Amino acid sequence: MEYxxxxxxxxxGKLPEEVRYAIASEDTSIIxxxxxxxxxxHIDQGGQLAQEATYVMLGITHPNQFVANIQNKLxxxxxxxxxxxxxxxxxxxLPIRESL
Length: 100
What we know:
Layout: H1 5-13, H2 17-24, H3 26-38, H4 43-58, H5 66-73, H6 78-93
Helix pairs in contact: 3-4, 3-6, 4-5, 5-6
């Protein structure tokens, strides 16, 4: 499902401050860029990874669906999708897990 900017902005506004900061943080962007580079993702795949991570933080996507979503949307094998998800989890999701 696609969301309008207004819908996303409304969801963002309802999040705990810690999660809003993580979504907007340059650190999060750098982590995602590093992961994309490490796994030789194309620019569009990196963007999709960032979108999927954001959807988890917004509560649109359940964290249990994250691996399957990036595997399908980025066209990755299972191992690579799991490795990427593990890095996103440890670098981005873990520090804000309680707020999620």
